């Protein structure tokens, strides 16, 4: 389930074709929260474009880069060399990461791939990995009342279920499950006519 190897080579082009720069702009909106020397976990980082963006912040960061797709990991490694960040790559599941605590955890367009049961498990694990005063940066699609949003989300789930064996079949209310686990939304901003939200969550 959730195997993105097949579409890894064309993922960025497909995303840009549909959303332009909205996905990356939303993802990087709150990167100003990062500080010199932060330990950063990127979960489901995809093709690694985010690494170039982080490097361009010109601050030293220690990045753990996790993705289940081997092809995504290989594409991410091809982004090197970097001037300011140190990256350790893991082709693995989230639950295989050891008892390390991170200052910032980045999850962009990652929570939407899970069914309800596994989403709860993922959020619990994120809570365990984040330092008490840390920041969880979540960027993802959100449900709205707009008809064309519903059609687009429905098409995306159909496409990814066919190409990646996506386990999720509908867009869940991530904020509900995050709050239930004890996260508080510190701030947020919407993108792409309200279909995408980037938010900072912190522990209670």
Q: Ranges with pLDDT <50 over ≥5 residues? A: none
Secondary structure: number of strands: 7
- Main sheet, how many strands, which sense, barrel? 7 strands, mixed
Q: Roughly how much helix do the residues carry, as a percent range?
A: 25-40%
Averaged pLDDT: 94
Question: Can you describe this structure in just a few lines?
Answer:
By secondary structure, the protein is an alpha/beta fold.
How would you explain this protein's 3D organization?
The chain is built from 7 helices and 7 strands; from the N terminus they run ααβαβαββαβααββ. With 204 residues, it is α/β, with parallel strands linked by helices. Helices cover 34% and strands 27% of the residues. The model has no long low-confidence stretch (mean pLDDT 94).
What layout of secondary structure does this protein have?
Elements: H1 11-19, H2 22-28, E1 38-43, H3 49-55, E2 61-67, H4 70-77, E3 85-91, E4 102-108, H5 116-129, E5 130-141, H6 147-164, H7 174-180, E6 183-191, E7 196-203
Parallel strand pairs: 1-2, 1-4, 2-3, 4-5
Antiparallel strand pairs: 5-7, 6-7
What distinguishing features does this structure have?
204 residues; 7 helices; single chain
């Amino acid at each position: 389930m959730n195997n993105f190897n097949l579409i890894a080579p064309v993922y960025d082009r497909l995303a840009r074709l549909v959303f332009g720069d909205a996905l990356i702009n939303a993802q990087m909106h709150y990167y100003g929260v990062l500080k010199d020397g932060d330990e950063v976990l990127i979960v489901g980082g995809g093709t690694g474009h985010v690494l170039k963006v982080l490097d361009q912040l010109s601050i030293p960061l220690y990045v753990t880069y996790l993705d289940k797709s081997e092809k995504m990991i290989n594409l991410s490694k091809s982004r090197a060399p970097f001037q300011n960040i140190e990256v350790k790559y893991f082709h693995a599941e989230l639950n295989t990461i050891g008892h390390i605590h991170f200052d910032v955890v980045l999850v962009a367009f990652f929570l939407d791939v899970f069914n309800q049961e596994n989403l709860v498990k993922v959020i619990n694990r994120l809570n365990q990995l984040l330092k008490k005063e840390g920041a969880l940066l979540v960027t993802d699609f959100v449900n709205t009342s707009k008809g064309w949003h519903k059609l687009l989300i429905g098409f995306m789930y159909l496409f990814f279920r066919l190409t990646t064996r996506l386990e999720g079949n509908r867009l869940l209310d991530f904020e509900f499950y995050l709050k239930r686990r004890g996260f508080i939304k510190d701030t947020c901003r919407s993108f792409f006519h309200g279909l995408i939200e980037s938010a900072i969550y912190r522990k209670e």
